[in-house]
């Protein structure tokens, strides 16, 4: 059989690389798509190994009810009936959906529509809450809307790239490769990394600031005051207040002391930032995953607004997202704190008019951590979890486990037969996996790309959007008669334009009447897309050129049309270290694994990079607490204990530990670090503080 090539998108990180998947004689191979504007043909180690992960071993291939194989009719009737009964008896807020940045935009759209427009609750939240909701909240405060203003090309144009709380070399490798390649082309280009750990990214930096955990606001307030002292001014609202608050940090020596660094390093960074007009500041989970996450985001954006470094080539603050479709999910209302199409709850009537739905949620729903707390209290009595494994990934994960075990009704849609979460479901719904899915995703630079199926649906598996629509119809709701992801996408695009009048930047008016053929052949393109005519006349790539940078005109989707600086007051982590728990536990990713390893563990070459869970310890801490390099150690917090291999490294900041998030009960006994992480959250975004849990370490 001749080879068939399908253009699709990588399902891992928010870089959103284009992939050419080739099927020949039932064998799958992948290569980077040179025509995709985000990766230009490159793939990282995870993307390159995608073909290793598409086998059917471990797949969930049939519906199950109470542990027994069931028909689709029986399984879907059970979900519809149990949700219906609980809603009738206890009201719409007694049920919830917990979804995922692994869902495609079309899946997300119908799940959100069902919960907010038909069930009438906003209790739908996503695991994206755990990685980028602080960026969402910071964007809304500063710009009026959740908008990333720049594009990857800005990272190449910039004379200075500042990476904050981001091990980009491991977690967004193709973006990092683009920065490095640009630096090789222009040796004057500088790279600064701000991270408590000396990561692989920090190793390649011109300047590394190993700040104390949780002191990002201290540093960026110090920078804001310094920039103002150097003559930067702004007539934007709140600029004066933000600068006045920032001046409370004192001089550079005081900033350095607060951040646990030497003054020369801080001074070098401030001077470089002040002197470099074309600066991009990239931030990721190290900023977002904090009880002060939203303030940290605004402290960074403040420095760009004060110096007018936004909307220009090579100048912007840049949130880089963790998951392949965290952005698409944000766009269609996957977060409980918004409706759909970036419309807030003040626009509830508008959304209800568009959907012509029987009801509409008028208040924000429960955010991820709150949602599982409400399940534990018995207030939420039925939950439908889609494409995520919260019993590993949530903080205080053992509480989430207890909550699910006590929950009256748990439905799980997943492609895997066994995960920590799947094993606690009353009804299991077999969902399509990456190679079988068709729809769209949006990456960190606002580019919408097609994911296209290149393998047949195995067993009885179905697409997530199809499963959700079927349940909605069985609950008696109209409005879910979609026959394809293209039909859902058209409705999503139309909603973004409905009564928009320029109030929101997210506008896909030009895609609202795409034919099925247009959708099938859709090239990657960046939102906003206002006009079909322009799209067709110019071609997708040209439209993308027009929308690369936003806010160049200084007009923002706020009530006064201006961007806003936010005065932010530095504060430490929610839970401080103590004599009993003297170390700050930080969790994060490794280069070659993804989330809870259901896919990447299938690849021998990926698993070989780091074969077992570990804890990084500074040499003085290793000596102090009696743990040896290569030996096993018990890492404990008030919530639990993990047993992991010790790596003693001077790259780990003294007083801190790092343990990767991936391993779970299936792959290593007692290595589920989510069970150890404290559930403190940012009061604005609800994002958990994964980067700072007081902990102890001892030999095991
Ligand atoms: Fe996939 Fe991200 Fe790697 Fe690109 S950088 S190949 S999107 S994991």
From TrEMBL:
Keyword Iron-sulfur carried by entry: yes
Q: Which domain of life is it from?
A: Bacteria
Q: Can you cite an annotated GO cellular component?
A: membrane
Q: What are the GO BP annotations of this UniProt entry? A: cellular respiration; nitrate assimilation
Q: What GO MF terms are annotated?
A: 4 iron, 4 sulfur cluster binding; metal ion binding; molybdopterin cofactor binding; oxidoreductase activity
Task: Print the keywords alphabetically.
Answer: 4Fe-4S, Iron, Iron-sulfur, Metal-binding, Molybdenum, Nitrate assimilation, Oxidoreductase
Q: Would you indicate the residue range of the signal peptide? A: none
Which residues does the UniProt record annotate as the domain 4Fe-4S Mo/W bis-MGD-type? 3-58
Magnesium in keyword set: no
Cofactor(s) demanded: [4Fe-4S] cluster; Mo-bis(molybdopterin guanine dinucleotide)
Q: Which family does it belong to?
A: Belongs to the prokaryotic molybdopterin-containing oxidoreductase family. NasA/NapA/NarB subfamily.
Q: What is this protein called?
A: Nitrate reductase
Q: What is the lineage of its organism?
A: Bacteria, Pseudomonadati, Pseudomonadota, Gammaproteobacteria, Salinisphaerales
Part of the intact protein present: 1 to 700 of 890
């Amino acid at each position: 059989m001749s080879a068939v090539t399908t253009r699709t998108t990588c399902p891992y990180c928010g870089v959103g690389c284009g992939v050419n998947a080739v099927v020949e004689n039932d064998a799958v191979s992948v290569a980077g798509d040179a025509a995709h504007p985000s990766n230009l043909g490159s793939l990282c180690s995870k993307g390159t190994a995608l073909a290793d992960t598409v086998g059917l071993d471990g797949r969930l291939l049939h519906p199950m009810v109470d542990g027994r194989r069931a028909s689709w009719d029986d399984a879907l009737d059970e979900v519809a009936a149990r949700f219906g009964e609980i809603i009738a008896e206890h009201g719409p807020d007694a049920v919830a959906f917990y979804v995922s940045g692994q869902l495609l935009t079309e899946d997300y759209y119908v799940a959100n529509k069902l919960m907010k427009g038909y069930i009438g609750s906003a209790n739908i939240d996503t695991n994206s809450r755990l990685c980028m909701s602080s960026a969402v909240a910071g964007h809304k405060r500063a710009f009026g809307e959740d908008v990333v203003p720049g594009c990857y090309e800005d990272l190449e144009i910039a004379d200075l790239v500042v990476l904050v709380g981001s091990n980009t070399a491991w977690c967004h490798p193709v973006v990092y490769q683009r920065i490095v390649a640009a630096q090789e082309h222009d040796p004057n280009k500088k790279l600064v990394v701000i991270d408590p750990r000396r990561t692989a990214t920090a190793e390649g930096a011109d300047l590394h600031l190993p700040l104390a955990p949780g002191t990002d606001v201290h540093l960026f307030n110090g920078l804001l005051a310094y920039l103002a002292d150097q003559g930067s001014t702004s007539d934007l609202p709140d600029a004066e207040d933000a600068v006045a608050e920032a001046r409370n940090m004192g001089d550079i020596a005081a900033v350095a002391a607060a951040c646990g660094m030497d003054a020369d390093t801080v001074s070098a960074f401030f001077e470089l930032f002040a002197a470099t007009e074309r600066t991009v500041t990239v931030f990721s989970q190290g900023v977002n995953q904090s009880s002060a996450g939203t303030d940290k985001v605004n402290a960074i954006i403040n420095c760009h607004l004060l110096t007018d470094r936004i909307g220009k080539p090579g100048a912007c603050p840049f949130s880089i997202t963790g998951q392949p479709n965290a952005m698409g999910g944000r766009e269609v209302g996957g977060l409980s704190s918004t409706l759909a199409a970036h419309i807030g709850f003040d626009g509830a009537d508008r959304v209800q008019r568009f959907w012509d739905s029987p009801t509409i949620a008028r208040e924000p729903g429960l955010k991820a951590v709150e949602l599982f707390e409400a399940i534990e209290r018995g207030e939420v009595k039925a939950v439908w979890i889609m494409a995520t494994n919260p019993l590993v990934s949530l903080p205080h994960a053992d509480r989430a486990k207890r909550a699910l075990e006590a929950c009256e009704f748990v439905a799980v849609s997943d492609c895997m037969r066994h995960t920590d979460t799947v094993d606690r479901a009353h009804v299991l719904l077999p969902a399509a996996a990456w190679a079988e899915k068709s729809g769209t995703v949006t990456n960190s630079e606002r580019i919408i790309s097609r994911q296209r199926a290149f393998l047949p649906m195995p067993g009885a598996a179905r697409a997530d959007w199809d499963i959700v629509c079927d349940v909605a119809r069985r609950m008696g709701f109209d409005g879910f008669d979609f026959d394809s992801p293209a039909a859902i996408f058209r409705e999503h695009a139309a909603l973004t334009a409905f009564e928009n009048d320029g109030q929101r930047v997210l506008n896909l008016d030009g895609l609202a009447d795409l034919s099925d053929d247009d959708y099938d052949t859709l090239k990657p393109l960046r939102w906003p897309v206002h006009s079909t005519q322009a799209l067709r006349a110019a071609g997708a790539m040209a439209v993308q050129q027009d929308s690369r940078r936003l806010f160049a005109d200084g007009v923002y989707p706020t009530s006064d049309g201006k961007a806003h600086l936010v005065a932010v007051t530095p504060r430490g982590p929610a839970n401080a270290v103590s004599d009993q728990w003297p170390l700050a536990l930080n969790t994060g990713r490794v280069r070659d694994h993804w989330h809870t390893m259901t896919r990447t563990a299938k690849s021998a070459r990926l698993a070989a990079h780091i074969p077992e869970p570990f804890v990084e310890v500074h040499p003085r801490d290793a000596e102090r607490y009696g743990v040896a390099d290569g030996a096993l150690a018990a890492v404990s917090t008030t919530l639990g204990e993990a047993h992991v291999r010790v790596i003693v490294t001077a790259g780990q900041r003294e007083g801190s530990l790092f343990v990767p998030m991936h391993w779970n009960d299936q792959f290593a006994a007692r290595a589920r670090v989510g069970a150890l992480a404290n559930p403190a959250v940012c009061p604005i975004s609800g994002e958990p503080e994964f980067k700072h849990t007081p902990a102890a370490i001892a030999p095991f």
